[in-house]
Design goal:
Number of domains: 2
Shape: globular
Strand content: 35-45%
Largest sheet: 8 strands, antiparallel
Helix content: under 10%
């Protein structure tokens, strides 16, 4: 079993670099099972816009600013290893500018981040094959059928066939519950895996 996990948070802002400091966030992960859609850590770097960039196994890139980027990159590089299980959570703090939290399921580091909006064309893990016009269900290219709750359907009803998705176990405790992020729109919903098409 994995130890209790934490996330470090980061910020993404398009345009000129901002002088924003990193924040820590504690998250309660309810399931430590390895999920069917395991997303793992690949690398960390400083991109050309002076943003710290974390790349995951689905080629999604998560970015944020920090006053000491070299220190943060060294911290991540020394604690996070390629293949580590990474959980993505929605940041629900109203006063935060970061939309998501990355949490290493095996380490005590978490980061507040935003999805790099330029990476959606490169994400190769999942895309929408079919979607209900009301947003209640969708089928991914691998034939998995996902049910989306009533509240989430207000978001997913605008999603389109072909949209790239990031599917992550997040902190959900039920075996079939996942966070689905539409990389094209930046929206996310809670969904349950209900079967194979």
């Amino acid at each position: 079993m994995f130890k209790q996990l934490f996330f470090f948070a980061c910020v993404v802002v398009t345009g000129c670099p901002l002088n924003v400091f990193s924040e820590k966030a504690d998250i309660n992960v309810r399931s430590y099972e390895r999920s069917i859609n395991l997303t793992t850590f690949e690398s960390v770097s400083l991109n050309p816009y002076s943003r710290i960039e974390i790349t995951l196994s689905d080629n999604s890139r998560w970015i944020f600013y920090d006053e000491n980027p070299d220190q943060i990159i060294n911290e991540i590089s020394s604690h996070w290893k390629p293949g580590d299980d990474i959980r993505i959570l929605t940041n629900t703090e109203d006063d935060s500018r970061q939309k998501y939290i990355l949490k290493n399921a095996t380490k005590n580091l978490t980061y507040l981040v935003d999805l790099d909006p330029t990476c959606c064309i490169e994400i190769h893990a999942h895309y929408i094959q079919q979607i209900d016009r009301n947003g209640y269900s969708l089928v991914t290219q691998d034939g998995l059928v996902w049910a989306i709750g009533w509240l989430g359907s207000f978001t997913s009803c605008s999603w389109k066939r072909g949209d790239h998705l990031i599917i992550n176990k997040s902190s959900f405790h039920h075996r079939d519950d996942y966070l689905i992020i539409n990389a094209e729109t930046g929206d996310d919903v809670w969904a349950s895996l209900v079967g194979v098409d």
